[in-house]
Amino acid sequence: MMIELGTATETTDQFLGRPPPPEAAVSPSPYRTFSRDEWARLRADTPLTLTAEDVLRLQSLNDPVSLDEVVEIYLPLSRLLSLYVAATQGLFKATQRFLLAENEGKAPYIIGLAGSVAVGKSSTARLLKALLARWPNTPKVDLVTTDGFLLPNAELRRLGLMERKGFPESYDTGALLRFLAQIKAGGRNVKAPVYSHLVYDVIPGEEIVIESPDILIVEGLNVLQPARLPKDGTAIPFVSDYFDFSIYIDADEEDLRRWYVNRFLTLRHTAFRDPKSFFHRYAELSEEDAVATAEGLWHRINLPNLRENIVPTRQRAGLILRKDPSHRIEEVALRRL
Question: Is 279 helix (H, G, I), strand (E, B) or coil?
Fold first, then answer.
């Protein structure tokens, strides 16, 4: 039996609170774009269920998130998602009735979250998970990152792909697709591999178990990446085929570079000092050498991946959150239905 996660009587037009804006003079856009203030007004009466301490605990390193950001950006998003989940549940039940399969188990609502290294995906994923789990009917919300589906370092070295880690070819996409197919089919005890950022590798034999969530958030660099289509029309599933909604976090290249370098410098004084860290060799670098190393990693690996694989998927998202140089979300673009 599926739980109700919102009121189906409130429509998306009511959520927006105004008629659609006139078409752009130059070219039509599939998105409605909102300033921060315009988006914040769409919160309506959605309650704030997180404290400042909760927000501090949920944010990532070098990714500041204020309580105002939660109120003005994430509460309206939570409200929109409650409408979308309720509508999707209604469609699912209608399909069950059509198929005479009303006793089938629920299909979880899957949210994909994409964006560059250092853009703040982890903070957004954790904040959304916390907010969605605090809806009045307390749905079960799980979070999975695609890092666990990276090929092990030994395999990446064998294939000559260590310098391509994070690129689409460095993932076990088949395993990720099987995982999502099982989740979407209502499977129980679905297992996903675990990745350690400390050792920079998949942990052999370690798994997390996803047990019948109402909502699943899937976070990763390339989750909106389409597969190359075969000319004979053979079915090729995309990871995003399993998403009910998708979010892309956007920022200027220069801001992303600066955030990446600053995070690297912070880690040099924290996680890198652990002898078990894959990056332990960087802990004793001078400030100048550390900056040069981080810049080199950015320009050699992360920037090409951003330009070749991540940014091109931006327009496939249902919602784009645009950040300013201080990590503050300044604009929201919502895809038209």
Answer: coil
